[in-house]
Write the structure tokens for this entry.
Amino acid sequence: MIFSTACEHLAAIGRDFYRRGWVLGTSGNLSVVLSREPLRVAITASSVDKGHLTEDQILEIDSEARVVNGGQRKPSAETLLHLAILQARGAGSVIHTHSVWSTILSDYHNGQGGFFIEGYEMLKGLEGVVTHEHREWLPILENSQDMTALAEETKALLRDNPQIHGFLIRRHGMYTWGADIGEATRHVEILEFLLESVGRRQMMEPQY
Ligand SMILES: [Zn+2]
């Protein structure tokens, strides 16, 4: 994908996800791989309002998170996590949201290190899942402002959980990815739907 097309896609998705309450304020970030050899990634700049995200607020970075195209703006603080996921999973796109349900559930289930989502038809929207009987493990990492350490924890988490489609960071949000931007976008929609379903169900019956 060429940089200008990536900027168009990421800005449109950012504005759309803002309206759905998943990346309010300047929260969340989105990235897409432009090339593999050498690695070039388009990613949202730091501290930009996703409700008014524009194409010139997307940067092109290399594998060391250095800006190679995009002027004076800085990459998002969580760029190292995007790079860790893109490299560990061979993903083509990573999306990070700060939804209410990922924030609440990552706190509620933190003691177990994660939780399973199972039995929902919408699970079939996750790549490779063909039945509602699938059991999806959603691990939780403790939040940190030390992005180098968090990126290392992310790499270990992905190594230990080869089947997962996403993970949560406690009281913070969700990361998911896909082979391309369409798959990553779909995974956000599916996982956010499932998180809200699980959360609302637990409010009806806390032991559930
Ligand atoms: Zn975040």
In short: The helical segments are 3-19, 79-89, 100-108, 147-160, 181-204. The radius of gyration is 16 Å. Strands lie at 29-35, 40-44, 58-62, 67-69, 93-97, 114-118, 135-141, 166-169, 173-178. The first strand starts at residue 29 and ends at 35.
